[in-house]
Amino acid sequence: MTVTIHPRDAPPLGELATILKKSLELNFAAVTVHVVQCPDLRDHPFNLAAPGLSGNPCIADIGGQLNLFPTPNFDAKYSLLSLAEQMEMSPIGGSLIGAGAAPFQDLGHNAELAPNISWHSESETPDFNDPSSFKVINNTRFIEVDPNGLSSCQQISSTNCALMMNLYGSGGEPGPVLKVTAKGRVGEQNFTNCIRLGIRDAYGDSNPVSLGGVFLLKSGKAKFHVMPDFPKKLPFRDRDELENEWLTYHEFDAPVVCLTVMHSADPENLGLRMEHTHCFDPDGSRKGGHYHYDLDGEEVEYEAYLHPASTVYRIDQPGN
């Protein structure tokens, strides 16, 4: 796999807090943004595999949508632990969360994935290529639909993925983060685009900022899509067929936990997915998938914990 490394000059959290508050206030009736010590995100409802978002924060964009369209690239199979190694993370301990495609090679079919793992060493010489040298906590969910379009959200034992993946990596340590709350949407932007576009407006296209973390849809409902299994007839005719005839769309009520990765800009033309958010039901049911936007804006409420990345890794970019 080709890997390119792109440092990010992450602004101070306090500076970002001011920018986010200004942007969100244009779109929501009630907003707070503060720098706080991260709560233990292992607790309900977030259910992350690590307590925090601090410690060498980095983001990776792996594969991409071109691995799906016009014909799925069935060679695009990945391991989260191998990707952690490509992201120069430590086998002594770390955490990955994000959004991508489930491992069809393990499930036997296509689905959405909300990766959520941590690891720590049980060896003096841990090695990502030797799973016995460390312990993995895997709270990853996959979200699928049956032939009738009924969705389900389940934990998965595999630490693999496929096709496309956007990951926020860190040591999983406690530390300062941005806590964002927003209630009562009055504008047109969804929650994540309001954040990233506000940062873009502040820093411009030539000074990208990349963020990752988790947010909770606390009240209201939102629209999601869930990829079904690969169609029997391939290739896709066009993107309209993929988006409007193949993908399945769903509306789910809160609470829903959302793992997010976003970028304000892509000046290096890395083919980054500018925002990717996958969600799961904290109580284990049928809710989850790829977040689009909330519905019934007056009722909606969000609570987010976010952290900027200091490095972006572009891994296995299609066409390279």
From TrEMBL:
Domain DUF1907: 19-315
Pfam families according to UniProt: DUF1907 (PF08925)
SMART domains registered for this protein in UniProt: DUF1907
Keywords: Hydrolase, Metal-binding, Nucleus, Zinc
SUPFAM superfamilies: AF0104/ALDC/Ptd012-like
Annotated Gene Ontology cellular component terms: nucleus
Compartments where located: Nucleus
UniProt GO MF annotations: hydrolase activity, acting on ester bonds; zinc ion binding
Entry keyword Protein biosynthesis: no
Signal peptide: none
Complex formation: Monomer.
UniProt name for this protein: DUF1907 domain-containing protein
